[in-house]
Amino acid sequence: MDLNARHTHCGRVLVLALAAGLTLASVAHAEDQNGGAPGDWLSRYSGARTVGYGGAFVAVANEPMGVVWNPAGLSLMFQNEVHFETTRLFEDTAIYGFSFAAPARRIPSFGFTFLQLSSGEFERTSELNESLGTFDEGDVAVLLTASKTVTPRFSLGTNLKIVRQTLEEFEGAGFGVDLGLMFDVTPSLRVGTSLMNIGGPTLKLRDTGESFPVEFRGGLAFQFFGGRGTVAAELDNRDGPGPSLHTGSEVWVHPTMALRLGYNDAYAAGGFSYRLPTGLRFDYGVSDHALGLVHRVGVAYKFGGFFASSVASPPVFSPTGQQSVTKIQLEAHTKAEAREWRLEIVNASNQVVRRFGGRGAPPAHVMWDGKDESGLPLADGIYRYQIAVWDKHGREVASRVRQVEIATSGPQGSVPVYVEP
């Protein structure tokens, strides 16, 4: 059996196993919908971007905070990323999150995530209902993540989860393990599953210890519009609370703007993202709730890692003037050995007027003289360019779209002339 046949067979087996698991999950504990299980705040957590998916993130998980759903998701990332977000709940209760992830080429990708639930002050009373002041309650979770790409289509990941809870003068800590996997059935369809809280954590505030219930998560993510859109579905099942269904979608309606709409267990949710050329991204998410709307805000910053870049110098040139050509500097860093590169220059009508490319890694630069593929000079105006590089496994890194201008007519407008009397 060749490698492609093995991948196809593994994909079928995995999809069947996932379907069976989701079916069993939806039947098991169907009558048991108890809330307030240990670690419930962490299991139900959704961030500024993920809430827009309705929490259906186990098969997406392509950001540092995605390890809360599936630690294998780090293998989907291409650049280092720092992520911060906050969720404002009710009665002065809030959740704060910080996460960092660094994708790697040969060694496992690494991630660190910190989540904190802080409550407002609660009134302490005596047996006679007399006020004795106030107290607060807080929870902290730290996730140390490692993820490795086994094959270009299959990756594994694990979290070491450390949690701590404080309540008045009592406190307890414990740890557990999460396991996750990702499998690309086709270039557009991905399966993701995870098993959370293996062996704990178990917290003991006084005399009796309470363990976080084991949780199974499984889902699918389908990409469309050439990867600009994603539809995801997920079914979670925990010992005690039982199953919950999540669905959501994300569409990048513009290279800088994404819109999301989802259904998170029992409530509708949505949100949007706006990203800047500098690598900054701003996320906002909102979900409905019986007590009112819940708002979430996040900020992410990408840098380094695996990327491609192209910069023209000078950005404005004249094929008939002193600056007759522009030098386009190229740089790329791929997860595996580079297989092919392509630089395209397009006009205002989105027509490719000049194309550079070749096998292997791109050169340090290319020179463009303002002519099209047939060697004819192009009209003055603004043109856009972008480089894309594919590694030997077909994974693509692309630069952001930049602009270069051809200006042969020189500056426009009148120049005032003053004559002294």
Mind explaining what this structure looks like?
The protein is elongated and about 95 Å long. The chain folds into two domains: 3-124 and 132-303, Porin (Beta Barrel), CATH 2.40.160.60; 307-406, Sandwich (Immunoglobulin-like), CATH 2.60.40. The strands form five sheets. The chain has a 14-stranded antiparallel β-barrel with strand order 1-2-3-6-7-8-9-12-13-14-15-16-17-18. Strands 20, 22, 23, 25, 26 and 27 form a six-stranded mixed β-sheet that branches. Strands 19-21-24 form a three-stranded antiparallel β-sheet, with no helix packed on it. The protein has two helices and 27 strands. A hairpin with a 4-residue loop joins strand 10 and strand 11. 35% of the residues are buried. It has helices at residues 3-27, 40-43, and strands at residues 80-88, 94-102, 109-118, 122-125, 131-135, 137-151, 154-167, 170-184, 189-198, 202-204, 209-211, 215-224, 229-238, 242-254, 257-264, 267-275, 280-287, 294-303, 307-313, 316-317, 326-333, 338-346, 352-359, 365-368, 381-391, 396-398, 402-406. The chain is mainly β and 421 residues long. The longest helix has 25 residues, at 3-27. The protein starts with a helix and ends in a 15-residue tail after the last strand.
